[in-house]
Design goal:
Length: 197
């Protein structure tokens, strides 16, 4: 293996590692917000207005790493997919899996960016945060004004999480398909060499 090939291989491995870590950051934050943050704010903060403010501040802080994570998992996937599709043992099945992951990663990026934009718009409209009552609903005096955001995040939040989760799950499936193709290719070469001998 030449030095150039070794450097290229190391770059692809590094890209794959950053890709997986970036997906993990985005997915973990999404799950944490849905499962833990909201419940913790409701149980730990007594003032409904302060609950919304705390949650808004938490998402603002998280977006400082969430937005770069989205950029990174997209860019590194382009590097990784190019290496997979150009590999000597890539089958049509593997290419189809890569195409499915293209859709998932693109969808995760678009919904993630849309959610951040919607969150920023919501923050401008409700600079002190949206009040959250003890039952987890928006306080009545803000409910009508906040309804468009509630409806949006009710759909786009789970969709974004599902796209991220699908991207994570598909990674090992693609790796297994590539490894299986490589093993078959090597066995085929070995068999040919044996039959020639």
């Amino acid at each position: 293996m030449t030095k150039e090939v070794t450097v290229m291989h190391s770059g692809i491995v590094a890209a794959a590692a950053v890709h997986n870590l970036s997906l993990a950051v985005a997915y973990g934050g999404s799950i944490y917000g849905r499962v833990a943050l909201r419940r913790a704010a409701i149980e730990g903060v007594s003032d409904p207005k302060q609950r919304g403010k705390v949650m808004g501040q938490a998402w603002t802080q998280f977006n400082r790493i969430n937005v770069p994570a989205h950029a990174l998992f997209t860019i590194t996937w382009l590097v990784e997919r190019n290496a997979i599709n150009r590999g000597p043992f890539t089958s049509n099945r593997t290419r189809r899996l890569v195409a499915v992951k293209d859709v998932l990663v693109t969808g995760a990026l678009l919904t993630g960016v849309s959610n951040v934009i919607a969150g920023e718009m919501m923050k401008k409209e409700f600079p002190e945060g949206v009040g959250i009552s003890d039952n987890g609903n928006v306080v009545p005096e803000q409910a009508e004004k906040a309804q468009k955001y509630i409806s949006y995040f009710r759909v786009m939040g789970p969709l974004h999480t599902a796209l991220l989760g699908g991207s994570i799950v598909l990674g090992p499936v693609i790796s297994a398909s590539t490894a299986r193709n490589a093993a078959r290719g090597l066995l085929g070469k070995l068999f040919k060499n044996l039959t020639r001998g």
